[in-house]
From TrEMBL:
Pfam short name (any one): Lactamase_B
Organism (species): Saccharibacillus brassicae
Keywords: Hydrolase
Protein name: MBL fold metallo-hydrolase
GO function terms (MF aspect): hydrolase activity
Ranges where the Metallo-beta-lactamase domain occurs: 30-240
Length: 281
């Protein structure tokens, strides 16, 4: 297994030092995007597209790392507004680049379905209270979106596999590279208390379950966290918060999994007693 810089030092000064060289993250206001590819190679894949208005920021980072080459593909962990906010702008820049998502997520990305509305009664804090204002309508990418291969392989990333990690959304996926234990978790779990505006502002690093106000299936979310904890990832970047590595990650994820109902599931709320999808699907 590759030794990560600072993998045993959870207080490393630079968040990017917690990830391998070919994986970087970029914060777009309240959510992260991930760029996978060796710097200077000109060959890269974008995971998620962040908040609206982030396309120029993403492309600036891409040019610095990969030159003028376009991405080979855009992969979506899921289709919530804060992960697809810049996708239309990017697709205009790259008219022949395809978007990949889980087959269960495709209806939300082709305008056939809308996400459940946010629940402002869970989680506490300004971010949670603002949940009714967050967009929950599906977007229509038409034929640009393709289902991920059923065998778990990743387009253009032969060393990676996708894992179905539903709960936060029906077709949520995480990406894992077993050769070095790198995990791109999306919102299956996150490393900041996303319900709190202060925590989001300061980016205080701590493992949490998926954002409570936009998670409609807690049974599936519990199963997904357990699946990821069992991988014992060496390093992870999530959809919100800074990357983690080493013991901080493995111990924190194991704790979240073992005490999920206590640490992640709200005591009450619109979706607390709901189980709309099969977590084993």
């Amino acid at each position: 297994m590759q030794a990560y810089p600072n993998s045993g030092s959870p207080d490393a000064s630079r968040p990017e030092d917690r990830l391998p060289e070919d994986v970087t993250y970029l914060r777009t206001k309240i959510s992260n995007v991930v760029l996978i590819g060796m710097p200077g190679s000109g060959s890269w894949v974008l995971v998620d597209t962040g908040m609206p208005g982030s396309a120029s920021k993403i492309m600036k980072e891409a040019r610095e790392r990969f030159g003028s080459e376009k991405p080979l593909a855009i992969l979506l962990t899921h289709g919530h507004f804060d992960h697809t906010g810049s996708i239309q702008d990017l697709l205009e820049l790259f008219p022949d680049v395809d978007v990949y998502a889980h087959e269960f997520e495709v209806p939300f990305l082709t305008g056939a379905a809308d996400y459940p509305p946010g629940d402002p009664t869970v989680g506490g804090g300004l971010m949670a209270a603002s949940a009714p204002l967050y967009p929950n309508k599906g977007i229509d990418l038409g034929s640009r979106v393709k289902p991920l291969p059923a065998d778990g392989s990743m387009p253009f990333l032969p060393d990676w596999r996708w894992l179905h990690t539903p709960g936060h959304s029906e077709g949520h996926v995480s990406l894992f590279r077993s050769a070095d234990g790198t995990l791109v978790a999306g919102d299956a779990f996150i490393t900041v208390k996303q319900e709190s505006a202060l925590a989001v502002l300061t980016q205080r690093r701590e493992i949490h379950g998926p954002p409570t106000y936009f998670t409609p299936n807690w049974e599936a979310a519990r199963t997904s966290v357990a699946r990821l904890a069992a991988l014992r990832p060496a390093a992870a970047v999530t959809g919100h918060g800074e990357p983690m590595a080493g013991r901080e990650l493995t111990e924190g994820l194991e704790l979240l999994s073992s005490r999920f109902d206590e640490l992640a599931v709200p005591a009450s709320g619109r979706y607390v007693d709901s189980a709309h999808i099969d977590p084993e699907a």
